[in-house]
């Protein structure tokens, strides 16, 4: 079964490469969005921590 998978990948090099690149870009984007979210939350907490809020 493994030999069949390797032969299939060898025959479809471009498709396999594009799939690997797409997965890598997706993971990088998810990590970047998470990093931006954390930075925004930290900046908001720093901004709000110095002010008194009256509701």
From TrEMBL:
Domain of life: Bacteria
Protein name: ABC transporter permease
Native source species: Idiomarina baltica
């Amino acid at each position: 079964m493994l030999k069949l998978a390797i032969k299939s990948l060898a025959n479809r090099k471009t498709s396999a490469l594009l799939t690997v690149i797409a997965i890598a870009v997706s993971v990088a984007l998810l990590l970047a969005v998470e990093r931006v979210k954390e930075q925004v939350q930290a900046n908001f907490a720093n901004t709000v921590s110095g002010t008194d809020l009256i509701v």
